[in-house]
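# step 3/5: fold
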Amino acid sequence: MSTPAVHEVSSKSFNVGWVREQFPSLQLQVNGQQAAFLDGPAGTQVPRQVMDAVQKYFLEANANTYGAFLTSRRTNEIISEARAAMSDLFNCSPDEVVFGQNMTTITLGIARAIGRELKPGDEILLTILDHDANFSPWKALEEKGVVIRTVDIRESDCTLDLEDLRSKLNEKTKLVAVGYASNAVGTINPVAEITKLAHAMGAMVFIDAVHYAPHGSIDVRALDCDFLICSPYKFFGPHMGTLYGKKEHLERFRPYKVRPATDVVPECWETGTQVQELIAGIHAAVEYIAELGRRCDPSAKDRRAALLASYRSTVAYERSLLTHLIKGLLAIPGLQLFGITDPARFHERCSTVSFRLAKGTPTDTAAFLGERGIFTWDGNFYALNLTERLGVEESGGVLRVGLVHYNTIDEVNRLLTALHEYCTT
């Protein structure tokens, strides 16, 4: 597996009480009940440290970059520090970190730049399991005559069909775009193995780690991927996107940009003025994860070690919640759960679960839960190919429950109780 963190044992010092104290929004009340934020896959809540960092930027550093005065110099430092923080999260060099509006916008820009060098007949391999932001930007290159091939899934457990992937890789394949984890059904893909297969054919690999980043540590050096992208607002930060790109690729490909913009990597890939206050928030989000790691393992010597310690603890904690959730869901008559359900294989999935009930639509269920302060998502979550493949798109998609490390066993029990109530009333 490419996800060693999921095999680690949680530190006994993980303290969900301390974690929840960091997130002021968790105190929200709905109809007299405390909100249960089970909507993390669409965006997690943020700790107070992130809010403070954004406010501090406006108070002390609000200016554009590379000016000959104090607040501009401070902005330069803030961006540099955030790059260093993300480089520790990715395990790469700071000059391989790119900031952007969001994952979709960055991916569209990278796809367009790579497309400049592709010719008719070149092939790109995509997957049915992916979010459409790692599908449509590449499929758009069909306009240049690029051939798009798509890897199917095993419907029984919603995992990628690796034999299908191997059969479609060939000497014409120039890039494989694949998700680290499915935002719809939680499947963790064997991205290290896929990267080796792609590189053996001379193809680059673009990994969408948006959904994986809150649930496991990332090591782009170990993966040897060419690009990896994620969204800080999915791992307790503000609404932006971040990209890792091998420096050789960031220097080789030419971004679309305005003439006065720098040609220096990585800034040349950052179109226009960045949302600098949110970049300060990204740094704070990484520091929050690291602080949790230091509390779980005081021996962590640096930020990278602290991040790894944090994920060791949170993966094990989320696994315990997931085990309880899936056991409870499978006891509900008429419930159809999509994805891996065998606890012995939970290292192949993260704590995101999608299902349908025999009664009503996913929207009906989400509304029922929402009135009781339980926040879930319904629909396709932009994993359109998957919901079409599963035959549920026309009937409202699925209901999705996403657990992260600020959730609790009590919230899972509230959800299960409410679902039983919904099914029996």
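# step 4/5: annotate
The first strand starts at residue 29 and ends at 30.
# step 5/5: archive (pending)
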